[in-house]
Write a structure and sequence with these properties.
The radius of gyration is 19 Å and the shape is rod-shaped. It has one helix and no strands. Helices cover 95% and strands 0% of the residues. By secondary structure, it is an all-alpha fold.
């Protein structure tokens, strides 16, 4: 039972870390897209 609880806690920690990582990547991609859009607008 104790081993099962430990595995569940570790799995939960990994899932939370993965969600934060994916969220960070999304923000980076969005920021890069905004920069490209701004540069394209200035080029017009």
């Amino acid at each position: 039972m104790r081993k099962m609880m430990t595995v569940a806690a570790l799995a939960g920690a990994v899932l939370v870390a993965a969600c934060n990582t994916v969220g960070g990547v999304g923000k980076d991609v969005s920021s890069a897209g905004d920069a490209v859009s701004t540069a394209a607008d200035k080029t017009k």
